[in-house]
Amino acid sequence: LKAEWDKLKDAATVTADGKHLELAANIGTPKDLEGVNNNGAEGIGLYRTEFLYMDSSELPTEDDQFEAYKAVLEGMSGKPVVVRTMDIGGDKELPYLPLPHEMNPFLGYRALRISLVEDGIFRTQLRALLRASVYGQLRIMFPMVATLVEFRSAKAILEEEKAKLIDEGVKVADDIQVGIMIEIPAAAVIADKFAKEVDFFSVGTNDLIQYTMAADRMNERVSYLYQPYNPSILRLLKHVIDSAHAEGKWAGMCGEMAGDQTAVPLLMGLGLDEFSMSATSILKTRSLMKRLDTSKMAELADKAINDCDTADEVVALVNEYVK
Ligand code: PEP
Ligand code: MG
Questions:
Q1: For residues 252 and 5, is the Cβ–Cβ distance under 8 A?
Q2: What interface predicted TM-score (ipTM) does this complex get?
Q3: Which listed ligand is nearest to 208 at the C-alpha?
Q4: DSSP 290-305
Q5: What residue's CA is closest to ligand 1, atom 6?
Q6: What pLDDT does residue 323 have?
Q7: What residue's CA is closest to ligand 1, atom 9?
Q8: Helices (H), the chain
Q9: Is this prediction's pTM over 0.95?
Q10: Would you say the CB of residue 150 lies under 6 angstroms from ligand 1?
Q11: Weakest mean pLDDT among 5-19, 86-100, 219-233, 307-321
């Protein structure tokens, strides 16, 4: 098995019926790049920039951030790099940015909600990203978007900073894709509207599942309800992916589900374009995809969505299809 995986390191990800899928890696710091390149990632599907903030005793400066983003873009030699703007709050705290204690931090002031209020912090991050954009293929992604108004506000701030930099004579790439995480059910439900305005979606299943099932992703007592294979989740995913495709956009996934070997056949069947996961899951997933036929998986996904009533039934169906 190990020998087979080694051979897949430099191979593209191609299914049994010849369809190319993109297998990307999730990272938290530029130090993760070695593992990413050793495991044959075709890009970075999620760079969680909040670690830049969390591993520091004060707000990281524009230059500190620029260096980190540049290192990742250069380290990926022109392959796509999706950088997510900071997702602080929820379970992630900053000692130097005290946030009021909340009853429900996962439903509170976090991520883009903070960025749109503390817009000085947000603008600093965007300027660093825009300056780094000339060193590779940058894609910018906003976390925890619930409404179109939030996306439009964030995009407008990005455009303002871009115009300012260009005015200052700084070079900025002109092909930066701008997308959103789909991790709040409200955004998933109107994905057809978002698809007209964004360049891509990346589904954050870690949060999307907890919010859809109303089951805290950290709470053992309700973990039985945290069901990636529940037909409700699969239906949402189908709507998100179909909506992206209807507007000629791509849909990826950067939550844990993307690297889950039971979920992968279903996601292939739903037409997901990009799968981003921890680097160590890439080769086994490439090996699995190579053995699967997308039209057969489409039939599987269709049955899972229409004929199965429960998550257990979906798992049984996948096991029947993937022997
Ligand atoms: C997610 O919610 O699925 C995700 C990728 O983001 P995080 O795990 O950082 O919340
Ligand atoms: Mg999330």
A1: no
A2: 0.99
A3: 1
A4: HH--HHHHHHHHHHHH
A5: 204
A6: 83
A7: 48
A8: 2-8, 33-38, 50-54, 62-75, 112-117, 119-132, 148-167, 185-189, 191-194, 205-213, 231-246, 263-270, 282-291, 294-306, 311-321
A9: yes
A10: no
A11: 86-100
Task: Indicate if the pLDDT at residue 1 is higher than 80.
Answer: no
Strands 200-203 and 177-182, bridge-based pairing: parallel
User: What's the 3-state SS for 246-273?
Assistant: HCCCEEEECCHHHHCCCHHHHHHHHCCC
Write down the residue that tokens 């992630």 correspond to. Answer: 92
Q: Is the pLDDT of residue 91 over 80?
A: no
Ligand 1 contacts CB of residue 45 (under 6 A):
no
Pairing assessment for the beta strands 200-203 and 13-14 based on DSSP bridges: unpaired
**Which residue has a Cα nearest atom 4 of ligand 1?**
204
* First-residue to last-residue Cα distance in the chain: 17
The residue with greater pLDDT, 91 or 177, is 177
Active site residue 254: yes
| Cα 118 to averaged position of ligand 2 atoms, centre (Å) | 20
- What is the Cα 8 distance to its own chain's centre? 23
The pLDDT tens digits for 291-302 are: 999 999 999 999
CA of 30 to the centre of ligand 1 (A): 18
CB 144 within 8 A of CB 110: yes
- HEC states along 99-112? CCCCCCHHHCCCCH
